[in-house]
Amino acid sequence: MKKSWVTLLVSMAISMAAFAQELPFTVVYGDFVQGSVVGIASLHAKKAWVNDKALIINDDGESLFGIDRDASSLTFRWQDGTGKVHEIVHAVVARSYDIQHINGLPNNKVNPNPQEVAKIIENNKEIAQVRLKRENTVHPALPLDWPVSGRISGVYGSQRILNGQPRRPHFGVDIAAPIGTPVYAPADAQVVLVNPDMVLTGKTMMLDHGMGLKSIYVHLSEIDVHNGEHVVRGQLIGHVGKTGRATGPHLHWGMSWFDVQVDAAKLVATAQPPAL
Ligand SMILES: [Zn+2]
């Protein structure tokens, strides 16, 4: 008899744990994979957090969040109507990235000079501050459209290790196209950064698509919008260039959810951009 009580208690504990593991929303876009954006609906919570970052939730219980390049799990917390906070740790599916080791380089090719480093740090700070902005003037709509026609020449997550020093991973999608090729807004947005001269990224622009989702356009030859302007999906926003540190003309297109850099290629409906 004693054994059956134990068995009963264990099975009750398991079923309670299973009940507690249910996520309090439905997934309407994306998946739990590194670099994804997950769009959610029917989130019945006053407040919710992914890895302690607060979600922006609209009145219909819709929201979204991004998953880091190297995440192995994410912690979802939410506060119910009574104020009680619940927590679930959800697994994230790993991807493999293109890692290139290059050795035997002269050291001056590996490290930029100190004045450049200072300017690069300042540029990165400006971009990082815009990414963290929580104003929410646009309703996000997924999937996005490709912002430009051309050929993919660089992918999310790739990384070079120069003389044994790992460099910052490549977080954007590169689309090669001739200088002057038009760049269009991939969805409705507000322009949140226009900088005509950054060291690495050249003429640089950022759009806010709502709920923390932002996009960045790098190496442009021209920027056709001004800071604060609202743009609609398909509107001309700039032209492809090779300003800043670029070996050839291309658009570097990056997406982020606050400071989490996600894979733009997972936010569009087709694997390739339209051909030129
Ligand atoms: Zn790039």
How is the topology of this model organized?
Elements: H1 2-20, E1 26-29, E2 37-41, E3 47-50, E4 53-54, E5 63-66, E6 73-79, E7 85-91, E8 99-102, H2 107-110, H3 114-132, E9 151-154, E10 159-162, E11 165-166, E12 173-176, E13 182-184, E14 189-198, E15 202-210, E16 213-220, E17 222-223, E18 230-231, E19 236-239, E20 250-257, E21 260-262
Parallel strand pairs: 8-10
Antiparallel strand pairs: 1-2, 2-5, 3-4, 3-6, 6-7, 9-12, 10-11, 12-20, 13-19, 14-15, 14-18, 15-16, 16-20, 17-19, 20-21
Bound molecules: zinc ion.
Zinc ion binds next to loops.
**Binned strand content:** 35-45%
- Find the structural class using helix and strand composition: alpha+beta
The overall number of domains is 2
Specify the biggest β-sheet. 8 strands, antiparallel
Strand element count: 21
Helix content: 10-25%
Question: What can you tell me about this protein's structure?
Answer:
This protein is of the alpha+beta class and 276 residues long. It folds into two domains: 2-91, Immunoglobulin-like; 99-266, Glucose Permease (Domain IIA) (Distorted Sandwich), CATH 2.70.70. 15% of the residues lie in helices and 36% in strands. It has helices at 2-20, 107-110, 114-132, and strands spanning 26-29, 37-41, 47-50, 53-54, 63-66, 73-79, 85-91, 99-102, 151-154, 159-162, 165-166, 173-176, 182-184, 189-198, 202-210, 213-220, 222-223, 230-231, 236-239, 250-257, 260-262. Strands 9, 12, 14, 15, 16, 18, 20 and 21 form an eight-stranded antiparallel β-sheet that branches. The chain has a four-stranded antiparallel β-sheet with strand order 4-3-6-7, with no helix packed on it. It has a three-stranded antiparallel β-sheet with strand order 1-2-5, with no helix packed on it. It starts with a helix and ends in a 14-residue tail after the last strand. Residues 154, 170, 172, 174, 252 line the site of zinc ion (ZN).
